[in-house]
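Recall the central idea of this unit: under ordinary conditions, the amino acid sequence of a chain determines the structure it adopts. In this exercise we apply that idea directly, starting from the sequence alone.
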Amino acid sequence: MFWPMVAVAAGFLGLAVLAVFAVRVFVEARRLGKQVSESAHRINQAAEDLERATLSAARSVDSL
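Accordingly, the structure predicted from this sequence is:
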């Protein structure tokens, strides 16, 4: 009777460890998604800034 109880306890501990790792992976995946979203926003902002700068440069060249 002792060994079956040890096997059940070991199985439970194994599942608990896997659950902890699953939660950690989920948290890191959310963090990565947030960083990707922020990076995309920054890239879009930089693209808009570059477009405004090129329009300004084009106007300067046309005025010459």
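The two ends are 95 Å apart (CA to CA).
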